[in-house]
Design goal:
3 helices, DUF8044, membrane, transmembrane helix, transmembrane
Amino acid sequence: MQFIRGQVAWMLAMVLSLTLLGSFSYELFFVLSLIGLLIITELTAPFAVAPDWRRRLRWIILVGLVGFGIIVIQRILEILPPEVLPW
């Protein structure tokens, strides 16, 4: 439950911060939520025993990293001039 509370608190704080700054976007929220997930995963990691749910958390992190990679590729393609792209 400590992990869930931490993640929800992080995500709520990010929504409020981004809204107050006037820079809310789903991509930015996704990236900041992924960063929070990685931080909270490390901060709540047990030393001796790894529960089953923590092993399944690796798959969620992997999906998040793939999503992050897609966002980065899209941003790079937006920045590049059309002459550089082969299509």
